[in-house]
Design brief:
Layout: H1 8-24, E1 34-37, E2 42-44, E3 47-50, E4 56-62, H2 66-73, E5 76-83, E6 88-99, H3 103-111, H4 114-118, H5 148-151, E7 158-172, E8 179-184, E9 193-197
Antiparallel strand pairs: 1-2, 1-5, 3-4, 4-7, 5-6, 6-7, 7-8, 8-9
Length: about 200
Amino acid sequence: MNEIAAGLHDVLLDVSSRLSAAACDRKSPMHTPVIGTADGDLRIMVLRACDPHLAALRLHTDARSPKVALIEQRPEIAMLAYDPAAKVQIRARGQGRIEREGPVADAAWTAATAFARRCYLTSAAPGSEADQPLSGLPPELEGIRPTEEQLLAARANFAVLLITLTDLDWLYLAHNGHRRAKFSRGDVGQPWQGTWVVP
């Protein structure tokens, strides 16, 4: 992208392209953004999908995780992703929604690999105290691909985190001068309104 000639529409296309590609590419540095919740806590999560119109992001979580209860009470979410090779940083804010059941959660569960679904077979909720370092997985499933039958119990612990995006901040770092743009919108379906800002 020619950062000087690019218009705001080009920046939105860049954000959409990067996040959509990152959701499909495990090697992308934006595949694992930092997600912040309303309590100020931060964690790395895996980006699973990005709506091409930047309406929403999809991530997966354990339904027993403390962050799930927090998001259901205080849905404000922030995201930070950075690609050091491209020198592009994307920040986003939005409203989180947890879905345990329904077509979105069911489709996400079905599409996940057996190894990804195995994570939801832990005997206790994420963050539970333990006497020693452990994965929480049943010992017989450590390091193996579980069968569909073994995974049946995991489905109850799986949830989807959908983030409806309301604000975007794009920053391009360049030796001849950085470029930054900000975007916001009222409701989903409304067009993004953007402006250039001083980096």
